[in-house]
Amino acid sequence: MEIAQLLQGVSCTCGRTHTCQIKYVYIERGAAGRLAEICRDSGTVLVVADENTYAAAGEDTVRALAGKTVRKVIFPGDTLLVPDEAAIAAVEKELPGADLIVGIGAGVIQDLCKYVSHFGGVPYLVVATAPSMDGYASDGAAMITGGMKVTYACHMPLAIVADPAVLAAAPMDMLQAGYGDIIGKFSALNDWKLSHCVNGEYLCPFIYDLTMEQVRRVLSLAEGIVRRDEAAVGALMEALVIVGIMMSFAGSSRPASGSEHHLSHFFEITGILAGTPYFPHGIDVAYSTVVTARLRRKILCHPLPEKIYRLSRPELEAEIGRIYGSSASGCLALQDKVGNYAADRLEIFRAKEQEIRAILSEMPAPEEIRDMLALVGLEMDAFYARYGAAHIADAVLYAKDLKDRYTVLWLNYDFFGGEKDVR
Length: 423
What we know:
The chain has 423 residues and is α/β, with parallel strands linked by helices. The protein has 2 domains: 3-169, 3-Layer(aba) Sandwich (Rossmann fold), CATH 3.40.50.1970; 177-201 and 254-416, Dehydroquinate synthase-like, alpha domain. Helix content is 54%, strand content 12%. The strands form 3 sheets. It has a 6-stranded parallel beta sheet. It is globular, with a radius of gyration of 21 Å. The model has no long low-confidence stretch (mean pLDDT 95).
């Protein structure tokens, strides 16, 4: 189904009518020129970018806004921009009187604009500079607030415009990240089915199937992505936008984000807390998908446990404190609210064992995922070299505590929480 059709909404066999707030999506050469018409009723426009993304598409964007009052917030390009309270304040300072926010960039810039737009009551649109993630068309803003990774429910952009020539010129790790984010849907969709089975969570077959269709599509684009072929990169961007629309249809990021994203968030959060480097989001998602595939295979190779694994409360608090430091109390409060540590799902596991095992078996083998990543130059050795086996083992045990979502990380914890081997 084409993007233009999806934007019209779908009356679905799942019983829901799926809708999307986005009015325009243009992925084409010279796409920034579309802003003249899209922004015709906006007198004052706030442009947000960093020095690198502005260099990629800023001049074309501002040229299309000729005749309007244009304000700019341009972040430095030589340091990693974190979407935290300081970045929010920098954009909010220039917001009063603006009719529209135009975010030029990729993940962090778009999340920042999305957040400020929603809470400031000013619409925003996206000028994409890299096909690096699926959040362009989602209503979730992934922010770092209070030292934690928090996804805020916001409204969606008025429009997304992307020039394949600009996208294809993005740094290679951004192209790899977009490809990796899509490969991660193997894990996310499997987690969705798992939670549907274990917890009765809503699952829409139409959303599931169309998301998986994008995964298959992107796998065929790997060679072209590496060559920076504009058609392949443009198709990758289309797939990322469609997945974002699927999140809107589902009412959450569930079709696109599961255990592999929780691991990625873990590496980002702990990296920020420790001041150590971490990979771009989509690349972490890609590597983490291999890890989650290994967890599924491990579970499939073992019988059900006699009892689920649990630490005592003092032991749990010590472990969460060791991992998250000042953010530990927030993680514990979230899990106390959800009740995951209090839940004993062993009887459900026993009653639905065959169904659970069938779902886990649908996930490609870790070696298959590894080979998919190698097609775009992503090698697992780099992942282990950066984080080390001990840190990755901590991620497997405690990344689940960052979110309220049920995934294979909880199933693994219930089965093997005391074990550290994830290779």
